[in-house]
Design brief:
The complex is a heterodimer of chains A (249) and B (246). Chain A is an all-alpha fold and 249 residues long. Chain A contains eleven helices and no strands. With 246 residues, chain B is α/β, with parallel strands linked by helices. Helix content of chain B is 38%, strand content 24%. Chain B is built from nine helices and ten strands. Chain B has helices at 44-51, 76-82, 98-108, 114-127, 143-155, 173-188, 200-206, 224-229, 234-245; strands spanning 6-15, 18-28, 33-37, 59-64, 67-68, 83-86, 161-165, 192-196, 209-214, 217-222. In chain B, the strands form two sheets. Chain B has a six-stranded mixed beta sheet with strand order 6-7-8-3-9-10, with helices on both faces. In chain B, helix 3 (98-108) packs across helix 4, helix 3 (98-108) runs parallel beside helix 5 (143-155) and helix 5 (143-155) packs parallel to helix 6. The longest helix of chain B has 16 residues, at 173-188. The chains are: A mainly alpha (249), B alpha/beta (246). At the A-B interface, helix 8 and helix 9 of A face helix 2, strand 6, helix 3 and helix 5 of B.
């Protein structure tokens, strides 16, 4: 089967229009022109938006997970409906709802521009996914832990906070880091929210630059920027998962 | 006569359709050591777990020092701090060191200062002979050591009564003795103890009274010299023969 591979490689080398590809995707001048703003503004914003959406989503998810495990049925119902709803919708729809639906309906806009709207919109979606992860983590802690805590006189809240959650978080750090990687990429959806020169994240920045320069090089540059952020995290997840698997043995 | 520490009246417990406890009556006096024996599925663990409300009784009442614990106004968390519980699977908190296992409930439930909690923890660890393990994580300890830490953890709350749910059943045979020794000392110091166990020699030597349960009822109870040596009931004899044969 190596013959096929060789044929494809040779064909690519000889028949692809390398001049055109290089001209449209790899222009050093354009890449240079993007510096330093692609880092100081665009990559920085991507990281800030991700951190904000993750933080908001995480605490909201924790609340949802506890509701889902509650002994009070209406709490469970609410959490279930919420989780199914926002996992079933495209993230873009939720972001549009928050960014444009709310102002149209209530005449009120979420403050702090892209940061505010994006954080809430994407955080709402992230919470739905993370809630299921956190719930699974809590349920993975053996039931005897809660019983031991309660038999020492701890209230359910105290036992959850000091005994169950610390153990649950150890279990869910790898999947939560995965969620973080997904969120980094999902901040690219913020381009629909519009932006000022200082609020652009990587994708919006590349798109505007591309229109201006009539060239696709900006896409390659921001792709590299995304990978610089996401690849180490993906590597970290794999390491954490391996460590967790070893501890289990 | 003084009020018994534990008084159980017509206790019934269902798990769904299954009636696990079918009308239990008994009392435990102050300082008394009572061993509950019986085949698996006889309801002995469920009975024990009802005493600190880890299981909620379906009907009947449990009085601790004369107060009904099933009363909706009863202070269940307060009650549990006075009743120490030791589990078959130890249930130490694996994310905390031994010291912090012993301190956490003292700090969060009793509101003791860090210094006081540490002092009590050291004292209790010394009592179970594990002072040198204070900074270890539970996973680094043998089963017998973990169970002794679990006993120390319960003692840190200064309980006036201890419940033991098959405390040696998960242990390798050579580690059982060290746990029973700690329990024997507690009994000698006058602790009120309710022990679900398969250790007949322990029951024989330490118990003031032995309760034999089968099928969710107390078949017979009395001093170990009666129940374990000259049982009145056929079912008790059969159980003791089966244990002996092991």
């Amino acid at each position: 089967m190596y013959v096929l591979l060789a044929v494809v490689v040779v064909a690519m080398i000889f028949f692809a229009d390398w001049g055109k590809i290089g001209h449209n995707f790899f222009q050093p001048d354009i890449a240079r022109e993007m510096m330093p703003r692609v880092l100081t503004i665009a990559a920085r914003n991507t990281i800030i938006y991700t951190a904000a959406a993750f933080t908001f989503g995480f605490f909201f998810a924790l609340l949802l997970a506890l509701m889902k495990l509650s002994s009070i049925a209406p709490y469970r119902w609410f959490a279930t409906v919420y989780i199914e709803l926002f996992r079933g919708l495209p993230a873009l729809i939720t972001i549009l709802l928050v960014g444009f639906g709310i102002p149209i309906a209530f005449g009120w806009t979420i403050p702090f521009g892209t940061l505010g709207k994006g954080t809430i919109g994407l955080g709402i979606v992230a919470a739905a996914y993370m809630a299921e992860t956190i719930r699974a983590g809590i349920e993975a802690v053996p039931g005897g832990q809660m019983e031991a805590a309660r038999s020492l006189g701890m209230t359910p809240g105290t036992a959850m906070l000091y005994i169950i959650l610390p153990q649950a978080f150890r279990i869910i750090i790898p999947p939560l880091t995965n969620e973080l990687v997904l969120l980094i990429k999902d901040t690219s959806l913020f381009f629909v929210l519009g932006s000022t020169p200082t609020s652009k994240e990587l994708t919006k920045f590349a798109r505007d630059f591309m229109t201006e320069a009539r060239n696709a090089t900006p896409l390659i540059v921001v792709s590299a920027a995304y990978l610089i952020i996401t690849l180490p995290l993906t590597y970290l997840v794999r390491k954490l998962e391996r460590k967790a698997a070893e501890e289990k043995r | 006569m003084s009020i018994p520490r534990i008084e159980i009246r017509d206790l019934h417990k269902y798990f769904g359709e299954l009636e696990v406890l079918r009308g239990i009556h008994t009392t435990v006096a102050k300082g008394e050591v009572v061993c509950i024996i019986g085949p698996s599925g006889s309801g002995k663990s469920t009975l024990l777990r009802c005493v600190n409300l880890l299981e909620e009784p379906t009907s009947g009442s449990i009085l601790i020092d004369g107060d009904d614990i099933a009363d909706p106004d009863a202070d269940v968390d307060g009650l549990r701090t006075r009743i120490g519980m030791v589990f078959q699977q130890f249930n130490l908190f694996p994310h905390l060191t031994v010291l912090r296992n012993l301190r956490i409930a003292q700090r969060k439930v009793l509101g003791r200062s860090s210094e006081e909690a540490t002092e009590v923890a050291r004292e209790m660890l010394k009592r179970v002979g594990l002072s040198d393990k204070i900074d270890e994580h539970p996973s680094r300890l043998s089963g017998g050591q973990q169970q002794r830490v679990a006993i120390a953890r319960a003692l840190c709350m200064n309980p006036d009564m201890m419940l033991f749910d098959e405390p040696t059943s998960a242990l390798d045979p050579e580690l059982i003795g060290e746990v029973l020794d700690v329990m024997r000392e507690l009994a000698e110091e006058g602790m009120t103890m309710l022990v679900v166990t398969h250790e007949m020699a322990f029951a024989q030597q330490v118990a003031d009274r032995v309760i034999f349960m089968d099928g969710g009822v107390i078949v017979e109870e009395g001093p170990p010299s009666d129940v374990l040596v000259n049982p009145a009931h056929q079912r008790t004899r059969k159980f003791l023969r089966a244990i002996d044969a092991e």
